[in-house]
Amino acid sequence: MLKRLYFLLTIASLLIAACSSGPARTYAKGNHKGSVWNVDGDFNEGSNSLKIYINGYKAISGRLSFFGDTAIMNGEYQGEEASAHCRRRGGTYSDYVRCTVFVNGQKAATIQW
């Protein structure tokens, strides 16, 4: 029983350690007179799951394939169409993952983990 608990704790700690956050970027729409938007994200290398946040709201989420190196994910923020074009460099346990985030077809930010 103790071995199982140790095993589960080890796996849980590895999954938590594999999760990383990208630095926040700011974005202001063209002719936008309001405040800028903060764009950031999280990538969990253990599960290949990705989340992109705009002003703290999860606007885009999805997974990268374990076998492919590119993905396009779609979502929305306050009625605006959002998408992320992501690319992995270096294989499944990659050197990095880079996503270019678009809002209504306009480049908003590039995030790298």
TrEMBL record:
The keyword Signal applies. Residues 1-24 form the signal peptide. Keywords: Signal. This is Lipoprotein. It comes from Candidatus Nitrosoglobus terrae.
